TrEMBL record:
Residues 8-194 form the Rho-GAP domain. InterPro entries: Rho-type_GAP (IPR051854), Rho_GTPase_activation_prot (IPR008936), RhoGAP_dom (IPR000198). This is Rho-GAP domain-containing protein. Keywords: GTPase activation.
Length: 209
């Protein structure tokens, strides 16, 4: 599968249709009772994500029994799944505006609210937006979990930023701290929110059945 570069069309920058449902399936299994007591993201070790689980999520996320797996395995699988996506979750068409906002807005809360408005643009493919809703909401919950799972927004942003932006698709002259701040700010404000498909937005239908 090919990735999304700076000159690619919106269609080429859209994550696969099943990706949001797969991410939601993993997160629902991760957030089962007692998950707050597991240090899910405190250490980032070599991936233990089972290949058969990743393949099943690509085929039919709703049919996958994620509850049979340990939380650590599910956390690794979430990261591995995002790593294998063919393009950045955040498309290049919005990249410059996001970086500018991170540079110019000192407050994380203010920055996060502005970033949410930018990401609500019709230029953000629906499937990418929905995936980012699930991911940022989950990471925000981790920061507030109060147990062994709890980690700071900045730590989580540093852990996931390569998976969200896939740096190789963007300019190498941008300070990577701006990437971290973008995701950190979204986590601090509770993540993206659901929205109805707006005029001009790609309306991709997916979901668990």
């Amino acid at each position: 599968m090919t990735g999304c570069g700076l000159g690619d069309s919106l269609e080429q920058c859209t994550v696969p249709d099943q990706a949001p449902a797969a991410v939601l399936r993993l997160i629902e299994a991760l957030e089962r009772p007692g998950w707050e007591n597991e240090p899910l993201y405190r250490t980032l070790l070599a991936s233990s994500a089972p290949l058969d689980l990743q393949q099943a999520l690509d085929t039919d996320p709703a049919a996958v029994d994620c509850e049979q797996y340990d939380l650590a395995v599910l956390a690794d699988t979430l990261r591995a799944y995002l790593q294998e996506l063919p393009c950045p979750i955040i498309p290049s068409v919005l990249y410059s505006e996001l970086v500018y906002t991170a540079q110019e807005t000192a407050s994380l809360e203010d920055c996060g609210q502005q970033l949410k408005r930018i990401l609500d643009s019709p230029s953000m493919p629906q499937s990418n937006h929905q995936l980012l809703v699930y991911l940022t909401r989950h990471l925000s919950k981790v920061t507030q979990s109060g147990g062994a799972a709890q980690a700071s927004a900045r730590f989580l942003a540093q852990a996931y930023i390569e998976l969200v932006f896939k740096h190789s698709h963007f300019g190498t002259d941008v300070n990577p701290d701006h990437h971290v701040k973008i995701l950190e700010a979204l986590i601090v404000v509770g993540g993206l929110t659901e929205m109805q498909a707006a005029p001009g937005r790609q309306d991709l239908h997916f979901g668990l059945v």
